[in-house]
Amino acid sequence: MFSLDFPVFDADNHLYETADAFTRHLPERHRKLFRFVDVNGRKKLVVRNTITEFIPNPTFDVVARPGAHMAFYSGDNPEGKTLRELTGEPMRSIPAFRAPEPRMALLDEQGIAKALMFPTLASLIEERLRDDPYLIQVAIRAFNEWLYDEWKYDYDGRIFATPIVNPCVLDEGIAELDRVVDRGAKAVLMRPGPISGLRGTRSPFLPDFDPFWARVQESGIVVALHASDSGFQEYVNTWEGSGGSEYVAFRPKTFPEVIDGGRVIHDTFASAVCHGMLTRFPRVKLLSVENGGSWVGPLLRNLDRAYKKMPQEFPQHPRDIFTRNVWVNPFWEDSTLGLIDLVGVDRVCFGSDYPHPEGLADPLSWRGELGGLSEASTRKIMSDNMFDLMGLSAAA
């Protein structure tokens, strides 16, 4: 294992939810919104009346080993093995994947001082309920209550679980934001992409949602835009003629792999800049997590081009707006040095995606991906930037 002589802050850790994560706090009238059923001897999750295959094993009793898919995501797969073949022998979930106290011991073993903690299965909620924004709020509230029960939002100043927020119903979204802030949340999770409305989808950065962002800015909380099921599958389906096919994690296909390239997160931040939210609320802090960094260059080039054509539409250069308000966690296999050239070392943050199979088996081995980067810059990326973003002391 690697070791470093400064306190490491991991911007991308994950928990595996328990079977009652969505149901424990659901109101009685919605008790059948989520349920598990047996299909050929395996547990599957039903959302309303539809089985979802989003996660092959939604109970997480058995999971792929951390880092099992590293060869695939590094492009080192000359034999063309499937993810299932690369997974090899799975493992039983350990207590550290399910609860904060054993996770603290694991963080100590791994040499990690603090970590943002994201859910895994919960990223399916909003897309599968997108036709009913009020039901989305019900489901989010129930999940956030479970998350607080099991992990708190600030566990011993080291593990910062990320409750979900969504302003699709504005008053409800603000109320939920206030609720989690009052309970000690230091960061919240927001799905990249447009949000649901009774008349279709639209950007969460339009002026209609300014009261939500005003509260975000006032609270000083970090909004983490973590990769999710953001509805991109619907666009894929228009090309592949696959109707209502849903996005399934860990089942990559060539066409989506080629056309995505960070499309959703690119467009999300394009909206945050071009629709003016980051101008109206210049102290809002947005952190991109597990979306990689390859999309940043195309976005900045597109913003530059728009500014040259329509400078009157921007109160300041859009590139400056982006680099003021946005922090980026690149994939471990990305060119981190190239990203630094684009946004500066102060806006790049380390995240291991542990214990997911596409993440790092040893989180601190990320240091080895940084090549000849100076120790001072390495410390910024793997420590100082997240401490500063979260308003925490980096004292070891």
Describe this structure in words.
The chain is of the alpha/beta class and 396 residues long. The chain has 15 helices and 14 strands. The chain has helices spanning 70-73, 83-87, 100-110, 125-128, 133-151, 170-182, 210-219, 232-240, 254-260, 263-274, 277-280, 296-309, 318-325, 336-343, 375-390; strands at residues 9-14, 34-39, 42-47, 50-52, 62-63, 91-92, 114-118, 159-161, 187-190, 195-197, 200-202, 222-226, 285-289, 326-328. The strands form five sheets. Strands 9-12-13-14 form a four-stranded parallel β-sheet. A three-stranded parallel β-sheet has the order 1-7-8. Strand 2 and strand 3 (42-47) form a beta hairpin. Helix 5 (133-151) runs parallel beside helix 6, helix 6 packs parallel to helix 7 (210-219) and helix 10 (263-274) runs parallel beside helix 12. The protein is globular, with a radius of gyration of 20 Å. The model has no long low-confidence stretch (mean pLDDT 93).
Ends: how far apart?
A: 20 Å
Poorly predicted segments: none
Got a strand count? 14
Tell me about the biggest sheet?
4 strands, parallel
| Helix-strand topology string | EEEEEHHEHEHHEHEEEHEHHHHEHHEHH
Average pLDDT, to the nearest integer?
93
Using brief descriptors, characterize the structure shown.
alpha/beta, 3-stranded parallel sheet, single chain, 396 residues, 14% strand
Set down the secondary structure blueprint.
Blueprint: E1 9-14, E2 34-39, E3 42-47, E4 50-52, E5 62-63, H1 70-73, H2 83-87, E6 91-92, H3 100-110, E7 114-118, H4 125-128, H5 133-151, E8 159-161, H6 170-182, E9 187-190, E10 195-197, E11 200-202, H7 210-219, E12 222-226, H8 232-240, H9 254-260, H10 263-274, H11 277-280, E13 285-289, H12 296-309, H13 318-325, E14 326-328, H14 336-343, H15 375-390
Parallel strand pairs: 1-7, 7-8, 9-12, 12-13, 13-14
Antiparallel strand pairs: 2-3, 3-4, 5-6, 10-11
Helix pairs in contact: 5-6, 6-7, 10-12
